[in-house]
Design brief:
The structure holds 3 protein chains of 3 kinds. By secondary structure, chain A is an alpha/beta fold. Chain A has 14 helices and 12 strands. Chain B has a domain of 173 residues: MetI-like fold, CATH 1.10.3720.10. Helix content of chain B is 80%, strand content 0%. Chain B is flat and about 85 Å long. Chain C has one domain: MetI-like (MetI-like fold, Orthogonal Bundle). Chain C has 14 helices and no strands. In chain C, helix 5 packs across helix 9 and helix 5 runs parallel beside helix 13. Classes of the chains: A alpha/beta, B mainly alpha, C mainly alpha.
Chain lengths: 348, 306, 306
């Protein structure tokens, strides 16, 4: 496993590829009775063509809110983009009308979610849920849309797709449903697929199949993928580049092999520490399966200085007083930590 | 699915069975001598005549025997004759039942249209002034007694404006009672629809539908409303039952010639055969409606169907 | 009704989640109270209920005339400084009658809900505790009775008992028993699975001790909360029976009976119909608002939605 982590992912993108999505200084706020909390705070990143970018963090880190902000699917009226912008192929999505945004969803940006069973309508047959988007965006008639749906189902390896069109979601298994979700998302050839914890609800064996399917689809269609996950194993398996988020901010960003080889933020180190290492998993005594101490602080009670300082083994007085800037620590490798240089010695 | 329907059918038969027991024993629960109470209002009934009635009703025989003979007669469609006038109970009830069903059905129609749309809009506009206004109206409606709303409508639309007749049983007479019954129940349906739709709007699959880039109307109707209809339609069946109950009161306000009005008169006259017949008939209507609703439920929800 | 039942069960389980130990009863009540009063509607409801109670307790001091005092003013005079709500056909002061009516309404609420709460709780508790055939038969029976509307059950009960206000209260109380039985049953099932119950069982507590010392105190708080909600439907139902002439009889200042009497003159003197109806509606509204507030305060799902 350690070897595969360091191995370069196939179909890796070059730095010069066209930028399809650019998130610039995005801040998203939620209004509640208690007041306003900022779930995403000044998030920026670029996504290139064919690239698989992972955004990783614990729950509450703002990774899912980032994806919903991009899609324009924030819960209404509680959530709202307070600052920054999202450029899709150069167009500012915040400036688009509701109608134009709906045209981009499905064809430009498509999304799949964590729970395939609840993410599909229980009272509509799968076929209908597949064809409706195809008919909407590609302007096909029902018969053609059906053909396209069957073709898509075949491409995600659903056996006997013709027969299964009339089935309802509860008649499928979880892994098959996630394949359906992917088929629906890819059916109108989107430029970008946003996958929010696509394998979390699935069995481990199915997880690998789904990740494999996503990579195959990327290679075949040339779409880019934003992969939202809390699981470093999934990142290692699939992503080219990774952004680590904590409390609504980026704390580390870089190519997967670099970040895994030499993490420059203690939080990343912690996330990698909680990654079970294959072959050692049985031997409890000498595994390095460590948990990050403490819990994610509530967004309305953030500590002063570095947001991770309360849980960090390296924290000094400076960390508790001053917020570290997000800077380039090595070429193409960014982090927000006062002690990123010292981490080398601690890294395994 | 078959198991579900068989189970419900069994429950329905059981309900009717329990009702026949309760109805046949009803007369024995009356404190004192029921026959004397029944005839207390008519002067000059001789003791011999009372004995004849006792004999006819079989009140002096053992309870089990009484029940068996009651059940036998009922199954043959013989619900006895009224105390006053000695008319066949079944005939009287069947003559008036359509009026009550028409009233309840029109009320359900009004209530559904208003209740569904108000509840849907309130859920969609959750947290806005529109939601607050609609839901304040709804809780006022829920708290409004049928009979009072009936009197107010009667006063304003029939007496003041003269748009509708004050009493009678033609179509123009139907409007006010149906509105009375419909409006108060619309409030209940609106509240249920709102909470049910709010649950639906928060569901992942609605978000998926938006993520697919479908037009808003398609998301709202094909996805949200279609899924929200399952619990709402189930509750419509219950609503019809409440409308039947409410009709008893409303018929009396407007002099609508249905079974409810007849039942109240029967209670005043202590006409037990008629009361018994009314209760049994009501139970049968309730059971039939609930079976119909079960079938609709099965048709609407694929999770039950398979 | 379905909504009421579902939320009552949610509420009941939520309420027992708040703090399952008896020692915390005071703290729990206090916490509940402050949570409820945080809700605007509930504050209005509470205020209205207090007004009703004050009106009932101090009726003889608040009302300028006796409830049945004829000739307090001219016959059928419109509302004025002397007679705030006008006078009826006998020249009785409507304001005084409405205020005195509050006493009867409170009585109806307490007695009717008392009956349904006591019998319903025992039924549900025994069914939930005993399990097996007792559970199956009892709850099936409850389901059967529940499928009729409360109106029909109340009518049947009045038909047996004969028309009077007391009988109407009893009838309304009986009609709601299945509802409370279902709530009590669901809460009992929840409580049965808690650690303290297992502990008591393992310690060798007898049936009586398990049911009355361990289960009852723990299922009671949520049931009492549900009963507050029940007051509104009890008041509405009893007023309906009186309106039909099956409850309170003239010259009783019961609001439903007053409305019934108003039917002969309300075309000339609408105020004799307006105020008693308004009083019923405000009372029902008060308990509905209070009930909604309590439900929102206790139901974590509702809270999350806001």
């Amino acid at each position: 496993m350690t070897d595969t982590i360091l191995q370069t992912a196939p179909g890796k993108t070059s730095d010069t590829a066209e930028i399809v999505l650019s998130v610039q200084n995005l801040s998203t706020e939620f209004h509640s009775k208690k007041g306003i909390v900022r779930a995403v705070d000044g998030m920026s990143f670029d996504l290139r063509k064919r690239e698989i970018l992972a955004i990783v963090g614990e729950s509450g880190s703002g990774k899912s809110v980032t994806s919903l902000s991009i899609m324009g699917l924030l819960p209404h009226p509680a959530g709202r983009i307070a600052d920054g912008r999202v450029l899709f192929e150069g167009r500012d999505l915040g400036q688009l009308s509701d109608r134009d945004m709906r045209k981009i969803r499905g064809t430009g940006l498509a999304m799949i979610f964590q729970e395939p069973l609840t993410s599909l309508n229980p009272v509509l047959p799968i076929g209908r849920q597949m064809t409706e988007g195809i008919m909407q965006h590609l302007g096909l008639g029902l018969a053609e849309a059906r053909e396209r749906a069957i073709e898509m189902m075949r491409s995600v390896s659903i056996p006997a797709p013709e027969a299964r069109l009339k089935d309802f979601p509860h008649q499928y298994s979880g892994g098959m449903l996630q394949r359906i979700m992917i088929a629906i998302a890819m059916s109108c050839d989107p430029r970008i697929l946003i996958a929010d914890e696509p394998t979390t609800a699935l069995d481990v064996t199915i997880q690998a199949q789904i990740l494999d399917l996503m990579r195959t689809l990327r290679d075949r269609t040339g779409a880019s993928i934003v992969l939202i996950t809390h699981d470093m194993g999934v990142v290692a398996e699939l992503a080219d580049r990774v952004i680590v988020m904590y409390c609504g901010r980026k704390v580390e960003e870089g190519l997967v092999e670099k970040v895994f080889h030499r993490p420059r933020h203690p939080y990343t180190l912690g996330l990698l520490g909680s990654l079970p290492i294959l072959g050692q998993a049985g031997a409890v005594g000498d595994t390095e399966l460590t948990e990050i101490p403490g819990v994610v602080p509530s967004l309305d009670a953030l500590p002063p200085g570095c947001r991770f300082s309360e849980r960090c083994g390296f924290a000094t007085d400076r960390c508790r007083a001053e917020d570290p800037p997000f800077e380039e620590a090595a070429p193409g490798h960014f982090t927000a930590c006062w002690h990123s240089d010292q981490l080398e010695r601690a890294a395994r | 699915m078959a198991r579900f329907l068989v189970h419900r059918l069994f429950a329905a038969v059981l309900t009717i069975f329990v009702t026949t027991i309760a109805v046949s024993m009803l007369i024995h629960l009356v404190p004192g001598d029921p026959v004397q109470i029944m005839y207390a209002q008519s002067q000059g009934t001789t003791p011999e005549e009372l004995d004849a009635v006792r004999e006819r009703l079989g009140l002096d025989r053992p309870l089990v025997e009484q029940y068996i003979s009651y059940l036998g007669r009922t199954l043959r469609g013989d619900l006895g004759v009224t105390i006053r006038g000695e008319q066949p109970v079944l005939e009287l009830l069947l003559a008036r039942l359509p009026n009550t069903l028409i009233l309840a059905a029109s009320a359900l129609f009004i209530a559904s249209i208003i209740g569904l749309s108000f509840g849907f809009v309130a859920a969609y506009k959750r947290g806005t002034w529109l939601d607050t206004t609609l839901m304040t109206t709804a809780i006022l409606g829920v708290s409004m007694p049928h009979f009072w709303l009936g009197l107010i409508l009667l006063f304003y639309f029939a007496v003041q404006l003269g748009w509708f007749p004050v009493a009678g049983s033609g179509f123009p007479n139907l409007v006010l009672p149906a509105m009375t019954l419909g409006l108060t129940n619309a409030a209940i349906i609106a509240r249920l629809t709102r909470s049910s739709m709010i649950d639906i709007f928060d569901q992942d699959f609605v978000r998926t539908a938006h993520a697919k880039g479908l037009p808003k109307a398609v998301v709202l109707y094909r996805h949200a409303l279609r899924a929200g209809l399952v619990p709402i339609v189930t509750m419509m069946g219950l609503q019809f039952t409440y409308m039947m109950g409410g009709a008893i009161v409303v018929e009396n306000v407007f002099g609508w010639n249905g079974v409810g009005r007849m039942a109240i008169q029967a209670i005043f006259q202590r006409d037990y055969p008629l009361i018994q017949g009314f209760i049994l008939m009501f139970a049968i209507v309730v059971v039939l409606v609930s079976i119909m609703m079960d079938v609709v439920y099965v048709l609407l929800d694929p999770r039950i169907r398979h | 009704m379905q909504e009421r039942l579902k939320s009552a069960v949610n509420l009941a389980t939520a309420a027992s989640d708040v703090a399952p130990s008896r020692s915390a009863l005071g703290r729990r009540t206090l916490a509940l109270f402050s949570a409820v009063t945080a809700n605007r509607g509930a504050r209005v409801g509470l205020l209205l209920v207090l007004t009703l109670v004050i009106a009932a307790v101090f009726a003889p001091w608040i009302a300028p005339y006796g409830p049945s005092q004829m000739g307090a003013g001219m016959s059928l005079t419109p509302p004025s400084a002397d007679h705030w709500f006008g006078t009826d056909e006998f020249g009785r002061d409507m304001f005084s009658r409405v205020v005195h009516g509050a006493r009867l309404t409170i009585q109806v609420g307490l007695i009717a809900v008392g009956i349904s709460l006591t019998v319903g709780t025992l039924t549900g508790l025994v069914a939930g505790y005993a399990g097996g055939w007792t559970e199956r038969i009892l709850m099936r029976l409850v389901d059967v009775v529940f499928s009729f509307t409360e109106t029909l059950i109340a009518l049947a009960a009045v038909a047996v008992l004969g028309p009077s206000l007391t009988n109407a209260m009893v009838a309304v109380g009986i009609a709601a028993i299945p509802f409370y039985a279902r709530v009590a049953y669901s809460v009992t099932l929840v409580e049965r699975n808690r650690a303290y119950f297992d502990a008591a069982y393992v310690a060798g507590a007898g049936h009586f001790r398990l049911v009355f010392i361990h289960l009852l105190p723990n299922i009671l708080p949520p049931l009492i909360v549900v009963a507050t909600l029940g007051v509104s439907s009890a008041v509405l139902a009893a007023a309906g029976l009186s309106f039909l002439g099956l409850g309170a009889q003239p010259p009783s200042p019961e609001w439903g009976a007053m409305l019934s009497a108003a039917r002969d003159y309300f075309t000339q003197a609408p105020w004799i119909m307006i105020y008693p109806g308004l009083a019923i509606m405000v009372t029902v509204l008060a308990f509905n608002l209070l009930g909604d507030g309590i439900r929102e305060a206790l139901d974590p799902r509702q809270k999350a939605r806001q």
